[in-house]
Amino acid sequence: MKSIFITGTDTDVGKTYITAGLAITLRKMNIDVGVMKPFAAGVKQKKGFKSEDVEILSNSAKIDDPEELVNPQFFPISASPYTAWKKLKIKPKIPLILSSFKKLSKKHEMMLVEGMGGTMTPILKNYFVTDLIKDMKIPTIIVTRSKVGTVNHTIMTVKMCQKYKIPIKGIIINNFDKGYPINQLKKDLESLTGIKVLGSIPFIKDMSDKSLYRIFKKNIDMKLVLK
């Protein structure tokens, strides 16, 4: 069973909650799913995991993997790994990321890897998220939003993945903006990119396992996710 890299058209498109929802759904389908966020950044939490995103993912998958494997590098600054490197003098460690992914892949039937920002978020000067996905040798799911302008961002993301020869399993629309009619957006994205829309997720108030499982099972084509 293939692992999947969850990338986005931009930052703050909801990659963490989409990844969490997929993890919960796969787990309830009796699939041993592991999670990973290679790079995380922001304000360090006082308790538990350094990153809130990593904590959300780990709780969703119900794993007990060491934090240093799930999130090999944390930067205490809201910035790309490249910017964090320049400001904090903490160089992103690509070999560490890849070795951690390999170890986790051996422990779990399937892995969900959440990226940082969009596909061209810089990690090193000439190494981007697209390079990381390619080095992991796994396909991606693109998370996009529903505000006007999303078609432009989605097409650019698809074209960059195609340029790097990254297989795209599909697109998930995170419908929390409610600016673009979903049925029309789905038709437009599929027509313009040739990539299947796996489904759309409405704004979610209840983030419990039960709620996320119900919503994802209803709104996402899990057969295509697992294909």
Automatic annotation (TrEMBL):
Q: Which residues bind ATP?
A: 12-17, 53, 114-117, 174-175, 202-204
Q: Where does Mg(2+) bind?
A: 16, 53, 114
The record lists the catalysed reaction(s) as: (7R,8S)-7,8-diammoniononanoate + CO2 + ATP = (4R,5S)-dethiobiotin + ADP + phosphate + 3 H(+)
- Give the EC number: 6.3.3.3
Pathway as given in its UniProt record: Cofactor biosynthesis; biotin biosynthesis; biotin from 7,8-diaminononanoate: step 1/2
User: Quick check: keyword ATP-binding in the entry?
Assistant: yes
Gene Ontology terms describing biological process: biotin biosynthetic process
Listed cofactors: Mg(2+)
Cellular component annotations (GO), alphabetically ordered: cytosol
This protein's record includes keyword ATP-binding: yes
Top enzyme class, one word, equals: ligase
Which keywords annotate this record?
A: ATP-binding, Biotin biosynthesis, Cytoplasm, Ligase, Magnesium, Metal-binding, Nucleotide-binding
Q: Which residues form the active site?
A: 37
GO terms for molecular function, please?
Answer: ATP binding; dethiobiotin synthase activity; magnesium ion binding; protein homodimerization activity
Top-level taxon: Archaea
Q: How does it assemble?
A: Homodimer.
The UniProt family comment states:
Belongs to the dethiobiotin synthetase family.
What protein name applies here? ATP-dependent dethiobiotin synthetase BioD
